Amino acid sequence: MSLHVEAQVPERGLDLALDLPAGRTLALVGPNGAGKSSLLALLGGDLRPARGEVVLGGRVLTSVRPGGRTVQVPAHARRVATLGQEAHLIPHLTALGNVAFPLRARGVPRRDARARAHELLAEVGAADLAERRPGRLSGGQQQRVAIARALAADPELLLLDEPMSTLDVDAAAEIRALLPRFLEGRSAVVVTHDVLDAITMAHDVLVLEGGEVQDRGPTADLLARPRTAFAARFAGLALLHGRAGAAPTAGGVAEGAGAVDPTGVPGTDQDAALRLPTGELIQGRRSGDLREGDPALAALRPAAVTLAPSTGDRTAGTVLARTVTGLEPRGDLVRVRTADLEADLAPEAVAAGTLRPGSDVRLLVPRDAVTIYPAR
Amino acid sequence: MSLHVEAQVPERGLDLALDLPAGRTLALVGPNGAGKSSLLALLGGDLRPARGEVVLGGRVLTSVRPGGRTVQVPAHARRVATLGQEAHLIPHLTALGNVAFPLRARGVPRRDARARAHELLAEVGAADLAERRPGRLSGGQQQRVAIARALAADPELLLLDEPMSTLDVDAAAEIRALLPRFLEGRSAVVVTHDVLDAITMAHDVLVLEGGEVQDRGPTADLLARPRTAFAARFAGLALLHGRAGAAPTAGGVAEGAGAVDPTGVPGTDQDAALRLPTGELIQGRRSGDLREGDPALAALRPAAVTLAPSTGDRTAGTVLARTVTGLEPRGDLVRVRTADLEADLAPEAVAAGTLRPGSDVRLLVPRDAVTIYPAR
Amino acid sequence: SGSSSDTAGASDAGGSTTLTVFAAASLKSSFEEIATDFEADHPGVDVQLSFAGSSDLVTQIGQGAPADVLATADTATMDQAVEQELVTGTPQDFATNTLTIAVPAGNPAGITDLASLAEPGVQLVLCAPQVPCGRAAEKVEESAGVTLSPVSEEQSVTDVLGKVTSGEADAGLVYVTDAASAGDAVEQIDLPEAKAAVNTYPLAVVAGTSQEELATEFTQEVLGERGQEVLAAQGFQAP
Amino acid sequence: MTSTLPRWAWPPALFGALFVLLPLAAVLVRVDPSTFLALISAPSSLSALRLSLVTAACSTVLCLLLGVPLALVLSRSRIPGPALSLLRALLLIPLVLPPVVGGLALLFTVGRQGLLGGPLQALGLQVAFSTAAVVLAQTFVALPFLVLTLEGALRSTGGGAERAAAALGARPTRVLLGVTLPGVLPALASGTVLSFARALGEFGATITVAGSLEGTTRTLPLEIYLLRETDPDAAVALSLLLVLVALVVILLAHRRARG
Amino acid sequence: MTSTLPRWAWPPALFGALFVLLPLAAVLVRVDPSTFLALISAPSSLSALRLSLVTAACSTVLCLLLGVPLALVLSRSRIPGPALSLLRALLLIPLVLPPVVGGLALLFTVGRQGLLGGPLQALGLQVAFSTAAVVLAQTFVALPFLVLTLEGALRSTGGGAERAAAALGARPTRVLLGVTLPGVLPALASGTVLSFARALGEFGATITVAGSLEGTTRTLPLEIYLLRETDPDAAVALSLLLVLVALVVILLAHRRARG
Ligand SMILES: Nc1ncnc2c1ncn2[C@@H]1O[C@H](COP(=O)(O)OP(=O)(O)OP(=O)(O)O)[C@@H](O)[C@H]1O
Ligand SMILES: Nc1ncnc2c1ncn2[C@@H]1O[C@H](COP(=O)(O)OP(=O)(O)OP(=O)(O)O)[C@@H](O)[C@H]1O
Ligand SMILES: [Mg+2]
Ligand SMILES: [Mg+2]
């Protein structure tokens, strides 16, 4: 079922339009308060826009326009199932009863509903909790049951609001594996703050900020070539803004300008460069059409950045001189922040030097770790 | 304040003892339903053990022993502040009022309390939400306010139950940076399902499973040398069980047995080997005392594993022949599962070959990526 | 009285007839006895008694209550019924009652006569002037030239009596019949001045009754020798 | 686990409990057991008790049938605020109206000359002064208890679970029966018990609109009232019977609502 | 946003509303405006109204002082289940007791020959026939309303926020005043309004324990009863005044609880 939304909800700062082709899963990402849950509420029928419409597979679920007849199909008749940010299990029913609930609501006979509910509970790893009431379940256990219950609803459109946030690593992995199987042929929107969820479950990613669509695209694409600061951080990339520079004819370590390539690898079609506002020129791989002078972006993994060796090195890339603005642990590495660039360095590298906020640092950005693409 | 706990809570399956030296932060990890929240409830005074005691800095907070006088200091008098798995903000107070609440409860004058609450809200990035009621905040915004409120309580022991689970990437990063600063000199327990939280905030990690302490140790140590399957998956490592083998005299690619080292690097003190139940011998770096035949473990990053090239290669390591049991996306890599080992391979590698469940695969485990240590 | 039916006053299917009598609450004991006698003399007749305050009874009949006979505790309320044409014929007086002084057992305040009721410190309760017993008390006051200052002006004799029996009040003016029914809990002190205010109980057949004959017979029973005996035994005087 | 009850709450609570319990004890002390037994086995008492139980039960059922929907509308409908406040306030009026006036109001409605008197008579229905009138009077005074108790509970709970259930495809009726009402079961039980208790104790409106005919409209409170005219002590003793019945019903209802 | 109210709830709800509103309308129709104005400006009416308002307000305050702690103990203490059920049931008894019997019970307690009569007289306190007795009677009958409404709400809400507040170092009193009570404000308002309404309409217990003297103990309901003896229509009209006063109070209370 293809989904079309167009809505304005001033009191939530929401103003967006969005299309989701049938059978696709969309990852909805964005900062806290961006309007993600509000968008789901709009789709589920719990929130009425000041103006706008929601159309699912040709059925108008919501339509509010000045002069027009207001349509608001009630939540239960939308064939849209929502797993909200809070589990909201029905307190007086057991876990099994909760999962059977949407089945019974669809008219499935009691025995069949219970059997199916048992299956679903097993799939989310909660088979042994079937007879417990929600009040006697841990947070993550409740979330598992809530996921099973949402799956039981068998909707045309499934809305999941941060379904993994309270799950342990195993359960999260299992459900990341389970959901795509279940979602096959359905449309779904999954809100998440975890890039892994987007990668494993979603065909597309939509970045919502301040109630507006900031970016959207196929998952791999958007994560490799983010266009907003938030999307970049979500993807774990550092993002540099600039303009397309002249493609260098050869790779090599560039001192922020012309490139020297000690390995002598010849420049290819793939090569590109980005001129930073500082005037520096960064070497990278081109992705998409770039004309010199066009606004362009460079994305790179902070972990690929290293301290530039004082002596020559065989790695092709760019050396940038920066001032450290902050240091913080990041996994088993240390994140070094500068005004426009982050680098994740090995602790040895940091400890050996005298790296601290305020000190100068020369960072080597390998050419192969940089993707340069149009800012659109 | 050093913390000592010893408790049995049969209805939650909890049975553990634990000591936390003053001023340290402990990351509490474990599967859903392991008893993490229950342990916090025990410390906070919301749950009374069937038997056991809680002592904080010499003060007996709980003591239940047969024959002894039962002590249960009420929650408000423990100087222990809890941020629960649910935010539970006070609905009729604004965000500011909520953060000021614990300050007012300590007798801080209204003006000072409000000023400090403003500061704390700013620190968690919620300064602009000060005048909103919880009902008008998004899930992540509520969580930010709840964190600020917990910090405002200024306790001797701070308990945080999955504080980051609903935060966006930016907020999570900010709070990961903020908390250690705040926690300096205090004791704290942070429940989390995210290894990054443990790495960035905790001195020690404790693995709870089925209500029992399965493992504990300094963070870096435990994450590098996990002793339980859960801890390994939490740290993102694959774990192999076996017995210490004879340390090889030289590195090299081993066909699961004797090692050949084409680079001719001589074996060092650091070298070790693990004999798997299958009889294969894995090369790796030793960590800790190992006597041949002792139960030992090998931990490795799945991303370091590659397909063994049919021709010779310069990387020192072990080649293991396995049958694929499952494939799933994992970040921008593909996770290949076998009976005892996972490998995260580049998509090209998988696509090029004919890798599918059931097919045979030869995996190269680089020696430097493997840590071998006693099973204790 | 006995069998119940959904709609009071209707004839029973079994051939028995129901006569419904609305009577003032203070007539409960005497009318129950009279009804039993009446039923004994009229096989197949079932007398249903409904007791409430006199003015309630009049309102109810005005709203179509299925009554055949109405007996009130004073002439004023009966006059209302006549005015509203709720009864047929002229109401007949069937009993009178006079006031007496009731004091708690042991007479703790040492009441001797009407004048002693006016002494300071005596907790005296009367009926309010709006209700029959209160009007009667007012008349007694006037004729005797005494001014009483009660601590409470009650809504009904029962309330006055309740205050006296519970010992809360030192004295109260109640009807002889009421004082009699309270038994040992109260003592009566003669009140010669009560002659000035005799309370009269009238009864009448309700207009539009389907059993005018039987209703008239019941009024005769009350007015007759046997009825008057029963009433006298409860302390009522003849009209 | 930890009690959040401040210690200072205990003395006034105890005093409050005594305030209610002491008078009850004072009544108990007065009642002569032999009189009590004789009284409660008297045919008129038993007939009144039976009538009271039957009518109070009917009224309670009526209260549930009308009150639950009313509470739902008051708590869950989109009636605008001021209109809702006014409606709620109007529904509370039977609480403040002296019962006799309430009875008069009913009489003015279903009596021969009442608002509905004409239509009812045309249908051959005589409501006033029948057992039906007793039920009517009891329902009138008892309804606000159910509505108020239930509405309060509905207002303060369940929104989340209800919305979740609707979002999973449950129709309003299923949400109501499967989520909403089970969620307010304690309040529903309390409200039912309250209205039953109020119906059981109802006197003023009953005597006005239904009269006081033994077996038909003379409920236990009316019997107690009449008895007081002649034998106040017996009346008090008989009211103990009323209290006992109410106690049993309340305890049973609470047990069932828990179990 | 979506109403989870099934459509079929509307007809019975409407019927229920009519059931209460129609009798009120029937009363309204009967009342002659000019009589009404004359009546409500009569000195006896005004004196009764003043007394009613003062005593009902005092009773409501007493109900709050005793009832809030009682509701807290019933809902938050660790009294074992059966004892709690019994206590709760006993506290409901004033609801079912015919008010006159309730008045007698009070008389048996604080009257001259009552349980506490001796001690009270030794202190020189004379309760019966005083305005204090009116307040006593009203509080006795009104207390269960507050306790029940509040206890129901306390049971079904707030545990989480309360525990969170305690975990942040708030003492029980602060939790109570800062979290618990604000959380049940609507129920507290409802309960207060209910008990005020019940106190305002109280008749039977008042007349029994306090008697009826203009200016001292004759409240508006007592005045209405008395008026009914001579002029039933006027009595009905006067009860409209009671209704109006109650309406105003209820509406104001609800507005304040919201704001
Ligand atoms: N109120 C309760 N009563 C009884 N048992 C409970 C209650 N809450 C949780 N449990 C059970 O106790 C065990 C421990 O629960 P706990 O909430 O401590 O787990 P947890 O480690 O915090 O899990 P999660 O990661 O899902 O939050 C679980 O098996 C759970 O089902
Ligand atoms: N009930 C409400 N009434 C008014 N405003 C609200 C309400 N709920 C949320 N908001 C506001 O609307 C905006 C969008 O909130 P929403 O819950 O949709 O955010 P979100 O993207 O889901 O955030 P999160 O990641 O924290 O869950 C926020 O600014 C929030 O403060
Ligand atoms: Mg959200
Ligand atoms: Mg937990």
Q: Which key features would you list for this structure?
A:
heteropentamer; C: alpha/beta; 9 helices; 10 strands; 25% strand; disordered N terminus; D: 259 residues; mainly alpha; MetI-like fold; 79% helix; binds adenosine-5'-triphosphate; binds magnesium ion; cell membrane (chains D, E); transmembrane helix (chains D, E)
Largest sheet of chain A: 6 strands, mixed
What portion of residues of chain C is helical?
A: 25-40%
- Mean of all residue-level pLDDT scores of chain C: 86
**What's the CATH H-level homologous superfamily of the largest domain in chain A?**
P-loop containing nucleotide triphosphate hydrolases
Count of all domains of chain A: 2
**N-to-C SSE series of chain C?**
EHEHEHEEHEHEHEHEEHH
| Helix count from the secondary structure assignment of chain C | 9
Order of strands, widest sheet of chain C: 2-1-3-10-4
Rounded to the nearest angstrom, the distance between the terminal CA atoms of chain A is 30 Å
Number of strands of chain A: 24
The CATH top-level class label of the largest domain in chain A:
Alpha Beta
Distance between the termini of chain C: 27 Å
Strand residues, percent of chain C: 25-35%
Q: Quote the average pLDDT of chain A.
A: 86
What low-confidence regions of chain A span 5 or more consecutive residues with pLDDT below 50? Answer: 257-267
Q: Would you give the CATH topology of the largest domain in chain A?
A: Rossmann fold
Strand percent estimate of chain A? 25-35%
Assembly annotation: heteropentamer
Bound chemical compounds: adenosine-5'-triphosphate, magnesium ion
Folded structure, characterized:
The complex is a heteropentamer, with two copies of chain A (about 375 residues), one copy of chain C (about 240 residues) and two copies of chain D (about 260 residues). Chain A is of the alpha+beta class and about 375 residues long. Chain A contains nine helices and 24 strands. Chain A has helices at about 35-45, 95-105, 110-125, 140-150, 170-185, 195-200, 220-225, 230-235, 345-350; strands at about 5-10, 15-20, 25-30, 50-55, 60-65, 70, 80-85, 155-160, 185-190, 205-210, 210-220, 240-245, 255, 260, 270-275, 280-285, 295-300, 305, 315-325, 325-330, 335, 340-345, 360-365, 370-375. Helix content of chain C is about 35%, strand content about 25%. In chain C, helix 1 runs antiparallel to helix 9 and helix 2 (about 55-60) packs parallel to helix 3 (about 75-85). The longest helix of chain C has 14 residues, at about 30-40. With about 240 residues, chain C is α/β, with parallel strands linked by helices. The two termini of chain C are about 25 Å apart. Chain C is elongated and about 60 Å long. In chain D, helix 3 (about 45-75) packs parallel to helix 8, helix 8 packs antiparallel against helix 11 and helix 8 crosses helix 12 (about 205-210). Chain D has helices spanning about 10-30, 35-40, 45-75, 80-90, 95, 100-110, 115-120, 130-155, 160-165, 170-185, 185-200, 205-210, 220-230, 230-259. Chain D contains 14 helices and no strands. The two termini of chain D are about 20 Å apart. Chain D has one domain: Orthogonal Bundle (MetI-like fold). The model of chain D has no long low-confidence stretch (mean pLDDT about 85). Chain D is globular and about 65 Å long. The longest helix of chain D has about 35 residues, at about 45-75. At the D-E interface, helix 1, helix 3, helix 4, helix 5 and helix 6 of D face helix 1, helix 3, helix 4, helix 5 and helix 6 of E. One magnesium ion binds near residues 36, 37 and 85 of chain B.
